[in-house]
Amino acid sequence: MSAPLLSVTGAVKRFGGVQALRGVDFDLKAGEIHALLGENGAGKSTLMNLLSGVYTPDEGEIHIDGKSVTFNNPREAQAAGIATIFQELDLVPSLDVAANLFLGRELMRQGAVLDVPAMRREAKRRLEAIDLAIDPARLVADLSIGQRQVVAIVKALSYASRVLIMDEPTAALTVGEVERLFEIMRKLAASGVGIIYISHRLEEVPEIADRVTVMRDGRVAGITEPHAPQAELVRLLVGRPLDELYPERARSAGKPLLTLRDASFRLVRESAGWQPPTGVSLEVREGEIVGLAGIMGAGRTELLSALYGTGLAGRWQGEVAVDGKPVRLDSINAARKAGIAFVTDDRRGSGLMLRMAVGLNLVMSVIRRISPAGLMSPRRQAEAVARSFGQFDIRPKNPDIAVGALSGGNQQKVVLAKEILGNPRLLLLDEPTRGVDVGAKGEIYARLRALAAQGLGILVASSEMPELIGLCDRIVVLRQGRNVAEFNGGVDEHTVLAAANGREA
Amino acid sequence: MSDQKISVAANPAVPATAAPRHRVDPLAIVVRFQSLIGLVLVAIGGVIFSPRRHGEILFLNPDNIANIVRAVSETGIIAIGMTFVIITAGIDLSVGAVLGLSSVVTASMMISGGFGLIPTILAVLVMGIVFGVVQGTISSRFRLEPFIVTLAGLQAARGLALIVSGNQYINISYGDGPGLAPPVFAVLGERLFDNTVPVATIVFIIFAAIATLLLNTTRFGRYVYAVGGNDRAARISGVPVSMVRISVYAITGFASALAGIVHAGQFNFGSANDGMGYELTAIAAVVIGGTSLFGGAGSMVGTVAGTIMLGALANILQLNNITPATQLLATAAIIVLAAVLQSLVRRREGLGR
């Protein structure tokens, strides 16, 4: 048997006093898709950075085709055939696709003038090689996240072609785009490329991976085959059995909090790709967690943001009632007055002040309450912060550091804690666990359920079907802005998917 | 790599009454007080390199110190206003021109208009506020970059000032009667407390104290940080983002008008072309004071210290007969140093850039 394409033996990496890797062995075969799983801090990013030349290991070796190699910088790793696609794609949005593919290695005419036609032709050829019909003259800014992902892959492959490392490539993709990406990955693997696939989404693993390595605390916790039961993967990830990722459901719900009856949101100006709620009827009761399911573009996010007044300009028609009384929900102020709070799906973009301290972020939604007569009260602020830290296990336990330095899961806890401080009666959540590791997910679910038990109503939109099914009391399925079906929690995934896609189960 | 430092929590509901203190990055402390540290260093340098006469250190001469704090009071007042704007990630380029306009209006109201002291001062301050409100409203309503709007504001203020003054110096003469300004206005050019503390400096210090309280202890101050930190998140949290935006430009307008009044009182004339380049000096003082042009972070004390530091630096170089060219180069080096320090801290905190 020949040597693996790529192998790492006994890798150790320390940062100051922190040991990020404690002797890791890892290998990748040609033509293999190898999933690398681990919670935040497990060391998978460090391992990836060793392989892509960002760091050099303190101990241990990297071999390619059985020969020992050392990478002093990312360029040397690329020269050895290793390409890395980071989560934050290194594309320039204001340039077109071809210009991005050739960035830094432009084709020239007479050595001085950019040969744009040649670059576009070559770009088109490379894109078509993986069956992708994107016009190379389009601006990257005009592409969907999924299309950008593919452009980044094509770009990476033109630098290096033997090993492809992908860091959470599906985090921001729609279901359709994920399918498309997987097809491309399979095609690449079939041509002999070895792919290391890093993800938080356990449910994707059996679909795409040939082998799975799970890391924990800087070590390899286990290597398993992709069809291992999910419980087994979770046990490896968190180091103990986690039989109950989802908390038990409520026994009974209270009075109706939010009632929509044939409610539509009329936009002042139509906007392509923004699906307004159209004839929606649904109800969220006190103590109830209601899920919003639907394919991308079905109008889940739009429904939540129209209720909160953060979407496009427009107004509600039909019956919209809170506590049985009709309300006009046309602005953030109106929503907040009605006791509604909202957590966006984009915590970095619109949820947090990343450079500001955790404590300052936490009290944002209660500033009025902690500043009587316009003067900030340090005592009330400290009380509010302490309350949040008591409710959520935010790590590190320091309200003074910038929230941007926290992990995704901890940032998400801060966003949730912030809105909960405002004592809302109805909480609107959009993708509450996107980019959050399993441990933090479990905590967030438990906390949401506990809040519901105290009478909070929760309306949660998610593209993760297991999450909706596990967490929610009821699931409302949206299609083209309408509610087309409703199920109780615990329904099977295919039934919901069929309704979302407009098919018979 | 925040990834390595932060362990994952799987146990919910850990009781936490008081969050424990954590080690703080020493570099972050340096940056937090960078302009104060810089001020101390410049002062020490001033003592060491000061020329001496009969054994007396000229730098520490009370007259010299009074000169330093008087010379910085106008740009200092402007820098204080600018700090609010820059914390919201905005910029106001119109401040120097509004100072010129205000000095002209102050002089012409009292000399040609025959208005009394109080009506003149109130009118000029209101004019400054209105000027800022207009800029803030245009920028906020039409979603224009403050850079562009206030660049236009700069041109507009200079144009208005030239119209009002007819491109002439308007000299302020004091006395009772038409065409004369009330003598009490001249106090802005004098010193109080045994002829030690310049009145312009007192105005600067009082304004700085009020601004510090406004920024650090009020709801409005917190909103200013929030809008600069992330305006979308602020909006979702119910912060009146447009109102805050407009208000900070009203504050720079007010500050520029106040500086213009002080200017007219100190020099006894109004001139349409005065205050040129003050916007850049003020921005420099704010940045040296540790306020980030990216918004969301900054301190008023830093700005005040940064302003005085720049003044003290210019003074010590002047005392040693070092050319203005060298002064500019020294200022340039300090601005870069301040910015580099901030960038290092951001990177250490894992916030990139």
In a nutshell, what does this entry contain?
By secondary structure, chain A is of the alpha/beta class.
Describe the structure.
- The complex is a heterodimer of chains A (505) and B (353).
- Chain A is α/β, with parallel strands linked by helices and 505 residues long.
- Chain A folds into 3 domains: 6-238, P-loop containing nucleotide triphosphate hydrolases (Rossmann fold, 3-Layer(aba) Sandwich), CATH 3.40.50.300; 254-339 and 424-505, P-loop containing nucleotide triphosphate hydrolases (Rossmann fold, 3-Layer(aba) Sandwich), CATH 3.40.50; 352-422, no CATH class.
- Chain A has helices at residues 44-51, 74-79, 97-101, 116-129, 145-159, 175-190, 205-208, 230-238, 300-308, 332-337, 347-351, 358-362, 378-391, 408-421, 438-453, 465-471, 493-501, and strands at 6-15, 18-28, 33-38, 59-64, 67-69, 82-85, 108-109, 113-114, 163-167, 194-198, 211-216, 219-224, 256-267, 280-285, 289-293, 314-322, 325-326, 340-343, 426-430, 457-461, 474-479, 482-488.
- In chain A, strands 6-9-10-3-11-12 form a 6-stranded mixed beta sheet, with helices on both faces.
- Chain B has a single domain (59-348), classed as ABC transporter involved in vitamin B12 uptake, BtuC, CATH 1.10.3470.
- Helix content of chain B is 66%, strand content 3%.
- In chain B, the strands form 3 sheets. Chain B has a two-stranded antiparallel sheet with strand order 1-2. In chain B, strands 3-6 form a two-stranded antiparallel sheet. A two-stranded antiparallel sheet of chain B has the order 4-5.
- In chain B, strand 1 and strand 2 form a beta hairpin.
- In chain B, helix 5 runs antiparallel to helix 12 (241-267), helix 5 crosses helix 13 (278-288) and helix 6 packs antiparallel against helix 7 (117-141).
- The longest helix of chain B is centred in the last third of the chain and has 27 residues, at 241-267.
- The radius of gyration of chain B is 22 Å and the shape is globular.
- The relative contact order of chain B is 0.20.
- Mean pLDDT of chain B is 85; it is low at 1-22.
- Classes of the chains: A alpha/beta (505), B mainly alpha (353).
- Chains A and B meet through helix 10, helix 11, helix 13, helix 14 and helix 15 of A and helix 1, helix 10 and helix 11 of B.
